[in-house]
Write the structure tokens for this entry.
Amino acid sequence: MSILGLATVIYPVPDLDRGKAWYAKAFGTAPYFDQPFYVGFEIGGYELGLLPDEGRPGPDGGVAYWRVEQIDPAVARFLDAGATMVSEAKDVGDGIKVATVADPFGNSIGLIENPHFKIKD
């Protein structure tokens, strides 16, 4: 068995239509799968899924970090879309920068700028 990498990140939202609209605006793309039980977006080769709120974690859950080219414009984009700042962008060493924002539903979204990570063709 080999691990192939991140495939899907799923966030619970109390209002699927509102969640779908917010994530479409924040990530700048429409969902590819849109059903009452699940909404799926393709983001840079990965899946972002939204589930109707099942009473799951929100800010107390794990944080998935989405790779971005530049951290500051990415943070600004999410804040402009209505996210709130959880942890401002900071260099964590070796040129790697991270920040965390929260969506309007309380889920933490990590953003990471990592100049050492290369996407494989």
